[in-house]
Structures are given as C-alpha cells and as structure tokens.
Write a structure and sequence with these properties.
Layout lengths: L1 H10 L9 E5 L3 H14 L3 E6 L2 E5 L4 E5 L14 E4 L3 H10 L4 E10 L5 E9 L5 E7 L5
Parallel strand pairs: 1-4, 5-8
Antiparallel strand pairs: 2-3, 3-4, 6-7, 7-8
Length: 143
Amino acid sequence: MIKESNRLIKERKRMIKGLHHISMKCNTEEEISKVKDFYINVLGLTIIREWSDGFMIDTGNGFIEVFTNANGEHRLGSIRHFALLTDDVDSIAARVKEAGYEVFLEPKDKVIDSNPAYPIRMAFCFGPLGEQIEFFCERRNYV
C-alpha cells in the first residue's frame, strides 16, 4: 500500500518542494536580542540576511525568520513545535541547559510505531520566546 501510494505521488508534479521557513515575531528589541543570542551563539546557526526589523537564520535545510515591528502581542497558534535536525541531540541539549534554557524533555531514544518503524533520538526545550523546539536525530543504524 505504501509503495503504491509513493508511486502515485511521484507520478504527479510536486507543487510543494519542502518547508522554506518558519517565522517568529518578537515584541521588543530585548526579545530579538535574546532570540539572536540563542539561535546564533547557543545553537551555532548563521544569519544569512538582515533587514531593518528582522533577520533570517539558516538551519541547513530551511530558515527561521525573526522579526519585530514595534510592540505587538504574542498569540498562540496551531503550531505545536518545530524540529531541528542534528546528529548529536545530547550535546545540543547540554548547550541549551548551560545557556540557562529549560530542556523539558531530556534526550531519549524512541521508536515511532509506524510502518516502517522509525527509530529516533529526541529532546525538547523552550526557546527565548517560549517556542517549543525539538532536537531530532534519525537513528539509521537501528536494529
């Protein structure tokens, strides 16, 4: 069934090529400074472009857009979290904790009960705006 579904998908022209970016809004210059420090200095990501009220960070296979346009208000949306792909969940979680951020789900192995089974290692933290960030590693050599 999965192979048939995959074949049908490949036959259609893909209109969506992937996720380009997520966007986060900061209310103050202090928040934007904390966000920049966390994603650049703690996680080691790179700013690829800046403009008067924001910047864009390269994650390696997508972008995080961060902006502020004066005082606004945070509103919860329907996005629960976003995941950043890494080869070393434990080291990233340790860096996040050392920087004073809460890791609310410590690194752990899990096999997602799917067909086929999907072995992963993951951890979750809260970022500087309260966003939930998952650090995600596919465990390809799982037996």
